[in-house]
Amino acid sequence: MGSPAIRAPQGGQRHPTGLAGFNAAAPGLAEELLLGCCASRRWAERVAAHRPYPTLDALLAAADEAGYDLSAADLDEALAQESSAASAALHPHAPAAALTALRAARAAYESRFGHAFVISLDGVRPGERLDQVLAALRSRLGNEPDEERAITADELRRLARTRLVHLVSRQNLSGMR
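RE: above sequence
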């Protein structure tokens, strides 16, 4: 899932960078930025409301806590904005047969569970991502719906953490669009 459209503040205002910039952002902007990490409005509101965060670890801990408290409707809201197609280009030189297998497995997953397949690939080398996704898809297709829902929620929390790290490492939060 990509970041939602973010408008820079009017009048050319500039925010501090990194975590300080996130902490100083107006509440509405902070929530919009957070929705790019996890598309649950309740999650974004909760994480934004607890600012300022003294450290990145404190922000990540708050994001995890908010993620564990997602209701079924919150999880559905977040998953509705995720896209299984987002990582179709996991490896630029992937064989066509592997990409076809990936598309077929994703279609089967979405048909079975009713939402996009999400997986955090943080720490997985680019050349291994396609194999990792295919293996996870095949394995998770055999899960019962309740079991898969729990795994999906955990993967979504992991994705949100990775996205938060990228968010606060950006040079200038006010220039994002």
